[in-house]
Amino acid sequence: MAALFTGKVLRANREQDEVETERELSRALENKVLLLYFGAGQCPRCRQFSRLLKDFFLRLTDEFYVERASPLVLVYVSRDETEEQQHAFLRTMPKRWLAVPFDDAFKRELELRFAVSEVPAVVVLKPNGEVIVGNAVEEIRRMGPACFRNWQEAAELVDRNFLLAEDFEDWSRRSITEPIRRLKYKLDKKTEAKKKERKEEGEDFS
């Protein structure tokens, strides 16, 4: 996937950090499903979808929801009118998002290459750059994080150890308190283990 961005610069961490060397790009992009998000912070449709996409991304990559981040990376390709608008938008999005610099003509090349005519649009790519879904906006709206499993299978990732920590099959029916209950479960298990240890230690001394 790094081949798509060879000789290009990507911005990281919502700031001005650059991810530009071949090694850095390879580490950031290889063996992952890549989402190219074409949007604009001032576009009403994009604003509405961006909130959904942010939640989608976090539920697959943030440790609050999953024990191990899914092999997923997102690159924002903006149609913002100014660089300030792009920065303002990215400040509201996950820190792990990457972005093509505002003044880079490569944005237009990507639009032409993937036939993007309107926004929002999300192009889903395999690690080798092949298209899995030409525009996944409706799929993400309809299925939520569950659609990632289909992309992961289609991508035929080399590392099969990347597994979702949650079963997203019936995600829409899950309670928003699920991550909290899961954390409580982990704490309860630790408490049980400590009690068992103390009990065993007590038996040893008796």
TrEMBL record:
What's an example GO BP annotation here?
photoreceptor cell maintenance
Output a single Gene Ontology CC term carried by this record.
mitochondrion
The residues covered by the Thioredoxin domain are 1-142
Q: Which InterPro entries match?
A: RdCVF (IPR029520), Thioredoxin-like_fold (IPR012336), Thioredoxin-like_sf (IPR036249), Thioredoxin_domain (IPR013766)
Q: Give the protein's recorded name.
A: NXNL1 protein
Which species is listed as the source?
Answer: Podilymbus podiceps (Pied-billed grebe)
